[in-house]
């Protein structure tokens, strides 16, 4: 490991930021609550105020790197032996964590994710809760769920949910009466999470497969809610928001025609955030449709709840529209 310094309550935020920015790792050896206060103070000293989205992303990445230098020791029993530390055993075990020196930001993320997993996220379209696992994007924003819940659905015998995540859209389709639903995801954590959620909802007839995009065969309905922004993902949760090179979007569209039955539809759920941020144009998107041999049968739109914030992403979200594109061969 790079230069490791044992630190405690005598360390000021400004000095912590300076040392971490220079590459030093800071091992916290004092009260756990004080470590959280130091982390919050460090975050305030690392602002991401910029009008440019690329610089905003760079500053966020740098902030994550610096904050990740504040470490705590996780013991062999997955406890943190510091005064005031919570019982971390279940959360770290559920997240697949290991003993060793771990960034405090990671531990807090595991604790937060475990709470989500225990309590679940209420999903109005299901009248039930979805329980996200660590590293799987929680359905806290539900515009995309609402669109899938209300889009016209007729004579659909089979459906594929591509990139299922928590399994929420597969559950909505099954609850709407689709007799056979196959959900896929490339992430092992997502596959495990989706299977657990669907079993909890009593929807064992939905099959969840580990696959990169499509399962074998054809379906009357293909549903995909890909990451909405082209760009590199720097964390597991980033992968639910950023799609490097628009790989998933392009792959879904390119493979849709070959996996649709005659008269079937592909539902693409996508925000216009990329357009608002200048990362993609509407013409680029519709050109993808044409190249894939798809035509637009209809489009359903929904506006998310108003967002506040001064960063480029928050400003774009204040004007955002989420759309469900109904595509046919």
UniProtKB/TrEMBL annotation:
Pfam families: MTS. Keywords: Methyltransferase, Transferase. One of its GO terms (molecular function) is methyltransferase activity. InterPro entries: DNA_methylase_N6_adenine_CS, N5-glutamine_MTase, SAM-dependent_MTases_sf, Small_mtfrase_dom. Residues 147-271 form the Methyltransferase small domain. The keyword Isomerase does not apply. GO terms for biological process: methylation. This is Methylase of polypeptide subunit release factors. It comes from Amycolatopsis viridis. The lineage of its organism: Bacteria, Bacillati, Actinomycetota, Actinomycetes, Pseudonocardiales.
